[in-house]
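Teaching assistant's notes for section 4

Start the section by putting this record on the projector. Ask students to predict, before seeing the second block, whether Ribonuclease R will look compact or extended. Collect guesses on the board.
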Amino acid sequence: MSLRDKVEHAIQNQPCTVKDLKARFGGDRGADRKVMEALDSLVHDAVICQRSGVFFTVRSGRAEKALLCKVVKLGKNFAFVMLEDETSDIFIPGRFTRGAMPGDEVLVEKFEHPRVEGSDEGAILAVLTEKNDLVGTVRRIEGRLKFVPDDCPAISMQLMRDCEGGAKDGDKVAVEILMRGNRQEDHRVGVAMRFGSSDEAKRCAKALLYARDIHTRFPDKVREEAKKFEDMTVSEKDCEGRMDLRALPIFTIDSAETKDIDDAISLTRTPEGGFELGVHIADVSNYVKPGSELNEEAFNRATSVYYADQVVPMLPKSLSNGICSLNEKELRLAFSCLMRLDKDGNLTDYRFVKSVICSRVKGVYSEINALLAGTADAEIQAKYAEVLDQLPAMKELYGHRARLRTERGCIDFESGEVKLILDEDGHCIDVKKRTSGESEAMIEEFMLLANQCAAHFARVKQIPFVYRVHEEPNGEKLERLHALLQACGINDHFAKDVPTPKELSAILEGVRGTSFEEIINTGMLRCMSKACYEEKPKGHYGLVLKDYAHFTSPIRRYPDLAIHRIMTDLLSGTDKETMAIRYTDFAAQAAKQSSEREVIAVQIERKAEDCYKAEYARRHLGECYEGIISGVTQRGLFVELENGVEGFVPASSLTATGTTLTEGIRLSDPVSGKNWNLGDSMMITIVRADVNLGKVDFEVAPENKQ
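Reveal the predicted structure now:
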């Protein structure tokens, strides 16, 4: 049989890439050339065709049906791939995965007759682009060191003996696939980087960053460009053409550890009894210019990433903690939103100006809360002497704004955020629920108002922009919400198909102080659509606002920096037509990139937090605590402790006689009649904590067992 016939026969059996064919029939330069000649001949004679680098037999018609996809999830005996347009996914049975890994770009053929009617199922025809860098853990399995990827802990791959890189059993590592087999287990990998023990949350967090290509170190060109901002101060020349607001008693309010201060506030009474509120934001766009290395890197990062006591900043420290940060007693360039409100707190007018400011004091939430409550000591009162007179007016204005917020039906979810307490070695020694006082809520409301003004400004001026969009929940999420409310015995009838925010707020208020409060809060939050950035103004469902954007944090969010740049150009006198040409594509690109990077940042922050919580739980194995049942499944219960640590109680730990699931809110033991209901409290014992996976396992405390 000629080489041409062999190649044709191989392609008849299975669509192939050039790499597949060279591996099978080539081997050296001459043989590889002959493979290419055979392919060219078959294509010329219309025996085979090619799509996206994969060769098919013409008569099969499979090329036309093949779909470009990306592998998004991998299990022991299955995979899921996402269509190129991200509209839907396809299930791939294990024998049809061709050894593909998460992140691989693949060509997929859908089955005409899937096993489950109405589902999408198919086979991977070929791997087009390989993602060969993975993060996971080294484990000793059957006497050999193997690599277990984080994306699929059910499989393991052989570590090549001369490429172990000194890794030990239990190490968190990054590897590269050096040789691919036909199955995932047949791949051979080599260690590219060691992070340290997978039992340490800080090592796992670094691996999470590495896996999503988030770098703590800035590229050399960016660091070189940032050097010119080190120890920079604002000169009088820099202040030319700006509104001079140095006489205003402006100050900042943040947490005590904050070093990158984006925003400052001021408040004065108007002669009519109303208020003039100033929200003054760091003018980052004055320093980060289009076309610069700093801008390119900021666009790519799109957001700062915060976890535990660490931050991976969007901008180098010479800007984020230096010339852009609104530090106490230092002259700074700002972009100010000056708003006028009537005596009842209604917004009547606003304007945006480039300004120069000087913050009088670095306020701290806890200290401001003490001042507002009248419990601050003399030392704190002396610290805030220059701005004390503003606080009663701020409290009054916030009261009006909070009332208006409630009247329009804004949904106020409890955040459920926790504070991780670390020791000097970076190990988690305690977990506490974050509490928020009046000053935190006040600042949030004032920032929200400035964000609203920025979006209104852009919509009225009809300029390209990056809006913060939150759409109403879709049908599938509303079904889950209805099921949750019915299971909890709560009236789920709404006036229209989609509930209004006010209706949802009424439900939250109705369960406040009951055992269902946290369950409903969390369940309703999960049923919400995900907020994102878009170039079209679609409003914000949760905040009940027609206009919303992110204007107030340009040090740590690229969308804010982007709209500062756009607004600055318009305020300088650029006409609307030029604005459209200059910024339409930019706004769309910034919105897309920022939305994607925000999702990645949130995923990392949540996974890292889970690792730290598990590290804390490992210190308390065998100890008993009271928790609330936060989730009910056929397999068992999820229980959340008072400090926010959540663990899983397997059904086998509840009773030896078996359980039945009722409506997703109750497990029952038919023999004893014992029930475990969503929202019930129960005593548990911490029995396992896997820092690497961020998972904690509980059992029913001994005295509570049947």
